[in-house]
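Entry 14. Ran structure prediction on the chain below.
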Amino acid sequence: MSVELFRIDDRLIHGQVVVGWGQTLGIAFIVLVDDEVRANDWEQELYRMGVPPDVSVVFASAEEAAAQLAAWQADPRRGIVLTGDVGTMSRLVAATHGAIRRVNVGGIHYRDGRRERLRYVYLGDDEARALESLSREGVDVSAQDVPTGTSVPLAALLG
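Output, structure tokens:
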């Protein structure tokens, strides 16, 4: 499988993704799955600026990503599929019928209605339930901010 990482990170493309994960995994493409960014050329250009020229970036809606996932997994290059929120990742997992077996929770920051689970993960009750649902469906859900960090299993994350 050439998609090396399915990651939820509300900052989307940034240094931890590009340098930390990208260089460690030797990625050649990033798929940013976000319906709003997909519809906004200006935002796409901003995200492209944070990526080295040898790494391609694909912007997809959740629906487009579900339709293209098999092709990305068959790509001989290594890649990352990135969503900005739990809901989008949950929709993608559901639409791909078991094709996604592991999800990394990389960074979900504070906002009203969320509580701290780790220093880099804040979840609301609905988000926690959605991650539990993914786990019940056989998806290995864990939190890890950087490749050298400790992987925290979902049970410990939700404690």
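Residues 62-74 form the longest helix (13 residues). Will compare against last week's run tomorrow.
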